[in-house]
Structures are given as structure tokens and as C-alpha cells.
Amino acid sequence: MNRRVFLSALALATIATGSAFAQNPLANKKFVAGLIATNAMNVASVRFDATAGADRYAIAINYGLGAHQVSVTVGNKKPTVMTLCDGVSWIVRNGGKAQAAGDEGRDLERGIWMTPAGVYKAAQFPDAKAVLADTPGPNGTTYMTLTYTAVGVRLKATITDKGLVDKVETLPEGAAPGAPVVTVSYGAYKDVDGIQFPTRITEARDGKVVRDLTVTDIKPNAGFYVEPPAGLAKGK
User: How far is it, in rounded angstroms, from Cα 154 to Cα 150?
Assistant: First the structure.
């Protein structure tokens, strides 16, 4: 095979198997269009309230700090508050003493980059190993799938033709042995100050729904930071 034929064959093989190679998402027109349509890069932080039946949620995320807090109030009980900030994760139950978080802390860290804005941000990280591909959707539509790495875990996002994140799921790569497949689905997006936010968020583990939130209030770029409790070591 001469050089020209070899290079042509190599180019065709690269196109055919391109999904196996990391890509620069900003070189993908659909990714950039979604980035602009959702205005995701202008979300530095977000706070939102939600309900799940009678339970009340207050959630805050700061993307720049990698900080995340989830407060859950059940009935008239004091809230259970799980927090990640400055690399420290802890949990406070019923207003008691702060304790180091284990799996909850890892969930909080991963969860930042499974949010709609987090997907677009994480895909641009140097070590994201982003891979984009088109996949058929319902009624003749085309979805974009975005596979990327965040906090050591491989994730896969499905994005509509309007650039809205439809769902994000964990993949086995980087996950702890026996870890469940976590799928977060988003819907009923709402424009808030020019930024698209979902008002319906559903989380499932191994296909079983564990959280079904109806978002009641959204505050983009409201800021979030909380000082870690004294005595809790970083990374614990």
C-alpha cells in the first residue's frame, strides 16, 4: 500500500472510530451551541429550593470552589445537612455535631459535575477526556451524547437538540467496585435571568428512583461558601 492510500485509509478509520478518542468539546458546533443556548458558563453558583412529597430540600453549589450542600427537612424534624467545601465533607443530623461524611461526601463531589451547568464546565477540564457523538432521539430528533471524566469517575450526559441536559449517568470506569449506576434526569427547564434551569430533577440508583424533586425557587449566582468545622481533616 502506497503512502497516499495508507493515509486515506487511516483517515477513514479515524473518522469511523473517532468516538474512541478524546475531543476538544469547543471544537464541536453542537456543544458550543448548547453552551450558548443554556448560558451555562455564566453560572458560577446556584441555590435552589425543592420539594419531594412532604420533604423539603435546600441545595447550594459553587462550581469554582467545588462546594456543594444539600439540606433535607422531613416533616417537623430538624434538617439533615450534608456539606462539601474546601475539600472537607461533613454531615449534621438533627442539629447535632458535625461528623465526617463518607459516601455522602463522594456523592456531593460527583454531583456537582452531574448538574446541567456542571456537565458543560467539566467537559472542558484538561483531564475530562471528552467524547461527543450523535444518537437518534424520539420523533426523529437527534441527541448529543457527551462522555467525560470528573473527580475520577466516567460520566455520560445526554443532551437535547436545544442544548439542554436530559440526563447524566455514571459509568463503571473509575467507580468503586459494586457502586450503583446513578442516573440523574432533568426536565421542565425554566429561564431564570437568561440561564436555563430544570424544575424537575429525578435521581435513580440501579434504576430505582431515590429522589424526585420539584424545584420551587432558583437563585443563580447567589454564591455559596461555609467554613468547615474545626477538627475535621481535609479529605475525611
Answer: 7
